[in-house]
UniProtKB/TrEMBL annotation:
One of its GO terms (cellular component) is membrane. This is OLC1v1026782C1. Heme binds at residue 427. Keywords: Heme, Iron, Membrane, Metal-binding, Monooxygenase, Oxidoreductase, Transmembrane, Transmembrane helix. The chain crosses the membrane at residues 6-26. Its cofactor is heme. The keyword Glycosyltransferase does not apply.
Length: 492
């Protein structure tokens, strides 16, 4: 072989080697780029569901997430509730998942929940109809509406409920009554009456059905819930029919049902069935969440006396200015800075909605991981809120952390604080919930002092709640001494 052919051979070999290395490296990086997050799928069929449930049945479910995050990082693969699932404890990843709702991901509820919600509930809607109905819901719970008339209703109904409180009070039950009656008022303009009491009895059974996991369809609670759903739907249908007649005669009310009559559906108006499903889903979405947050705020405050004292001082001043009977005004609500710190901190620590399930509608590559089409994804809000990197002493209830917080800028905790989710499915009731909570706190601290009636503890499965529904012994407070003291200070 001449030196020329030798050079050509060497050149060819070198080129082949370089191409081979490039392809190999590309494949490796591509594989790496497209790899599933690391993790453990656990046992066949059950996966890691049992470990998750037993952790969430205790007061401290954090080790379930902490262990996996320390082993695999903030995005890991697991197998829960019957499916392989990508679990995200990463704020950036969560934001990506929430923002890409309807494009790369869609919300995903099991069939048993869909049966209870009804096909036409907002939680199950997709696409342009979802967009329209989401903004319609927002328009019924936003600041102008709250300021205009909802605040007055909330104030009146919270007060009405608390009027009957004496001795031992099962706080979670009372908070549930309050939120149920508030929502019925907002949806249908009904004040508490025999009809609403009966509706609530059936409705409570429907709610129990949601949480009879993991083997919903086989449980008697679930079957009872389905029957109760039929009764609730029938009761609502009668109201819808009556009100439709009124609407056809040119009468309408300024409530959610009135707004639904005015919407034109898919061009032809909504059917009664569609309206009933929609109303029922709104009842479900705001009921357990807000009432549990109310109860937990009181529990956390009871366990943090300095915070309770500061909250009382803020609310006592407002009450002293208003006098005993006058209702709270919008300006009063806007002038409760420490109460808002308590609300934020309760939402952060309690994490009523611990995270949201989504399903990838196509292959998604994010942060070097591959999420295959059809896979379940769980964006854990809880893991982010309780991470020490995001919040100092993250596992301690500390409402003062929200003081002097500018709420903007890249290092603000607000950037990773998402108790109401985000993106197109961000909770449309977020402002309503804040107002309800603030008014509730105002009336409980100005109206009563209390002590826990029994030891009670927080659990997180099947939902976040206290085991004994937080029983307390209440005593009406006499505000007159506070007012006299304030008057004498002001007179000086
Ligand atoms: C403290 C109280 C509340 C919390 C923590 C809360 C939290 C959330 C979260 C995290 C989501 C997002 C779910 C997802 O992305 O899949 C959501 C959705 C929703 N929330 Fe709330 N919520 C609260 C109160 C309320 C209230 C009072 C209402 C009443 C209007 C409400 C109505 C809804 C509805 C209708 C949705 C579904 C939105 C959609 O799918 O487009 N929520 N909520």
């Amino acid at each position: 072989m001449g030196s020329n052919s030798m050079a050509i051979l060497l050149y060819t070999l070198l080129s082949l080697f370089v191409s081979f290395i490039s392809v190999f490296l590309f494949r490796r990086t591509d594989r790496r780029r497209r790899r599933l997050p690391p993790g453990n799928l656990g046992l066949p069929f059950v996966g890691e569901t049992l470990q998750l449930i037993s952790a969430y049945k205790t007061e401290n479910p954090e080790p379930f997430i902490d262990d996996r995050v320390s082993k695999f990082g903030p995005v890991f693969t697991t197998h829960i509730f019957g499916e392989p699932t990508i679990f995200s404890a990463d704020p950036e990843m969560n934001r990506f998942i929430l923002q890409n709702e309807g494009r790369l991901f869609e919300s995903s509820y099991p069939g048993s929940i869909s049966n209870l919600l009804g096909r036409h509930s907002l939680l199950l809607m997709r696409g342009s109809l979802h967009k329209r109905m989401h903004s319609l819901t927002m328009s019924f719970a936003n600041s102008p509406i709250l300021k205009d008339h909802l605040l007055a209703d909330i104030d009146r109904l919270v007060r009405l409920n608390m009027e009957s409180w004496t001795g031992r009070v099962q706080l979670l039950d009372e908070a549930k009554k309050i939120t149920f009656h508030l929502t019925v008022k907002q949806l249908l303009s009904f004040d508490p009456c025999e009809w609403t009491q009966n509706l609530m009895k059936e409705y409570v059974l429907v709610i129990e059905g949601f949480f009879s996991v993991p083997f919903r369809i086989f449980s008697s609670t679930y079957r009872r819930a389905i029957q109760a759903r039929t009764k609730v739907a029938e009761a609502l249908s009668l109201v819808v029919m009556e009100r439709r007649k009124e609407w056809e005669n040119g009468e309408n009310k300024n409530d959610m049902l009135g707004a639904l009559f005015n919407e034109d559906g898919n061009g032809g108006g909504f059917s009664d069935e569609e309206i009933v499903d929609f109303l029922l889903a709104l009842l479900v979405a705001g009921y357990d969440t807000t009432s549990t947050i109310m109860t937990l705020a009181v529990k956390f405050l009871t366990e943090t006396p300095a915070a309770l004292a500061q909250l009382k001082e803020e609310q006592d001043e407002i009450r002293a200015r208003l006098g005993k009977m006058e209702g709270l005004q919008w300006e009063d609500y806007k002038n409760m800075p420490f109460t808002q710190c308590v609300v934020n901190e309760t939402l952060r620590v309690a994490n009523i909605i611990g995270g949201v399930f989504r399903r990838a509608t196509q292959d998604v590559n994010i942060k070097g991981y591959a999420i295959p089409k059809g896979w379940k994804v769980f964006a854990s809000l809880r893991a982010v809120h309780l991470n020490q990197d995001n919040f100092k002493d993250a596992r301690t209830f500390n409402p003062w952390r929200w003081q002097n917080n500018s709420n903007t800028g890249p290092t603000s905790p607000m950037n990773v604080f998402t108790p109401f989710g985000g993106g197109p499915r961000r909770c449309p009731g977020y402002e309503l919930a804040r107002v309800e909570l603030s008014v509730f706190l105002h009336h409980i601290v100005t109206g009563f002092s209390w002590v826990p009636a029994e030891q009670d503890k927080l659990v997180f499965f099947p939902t976040t709640r206290t085991q004994k529904r937080y029983p307390i012994i209440v005593q009406p407070r006499d505000m007159s001494s506070f007012r006299q003291c304030k008057d004498s200070i002001e007179a000086k």
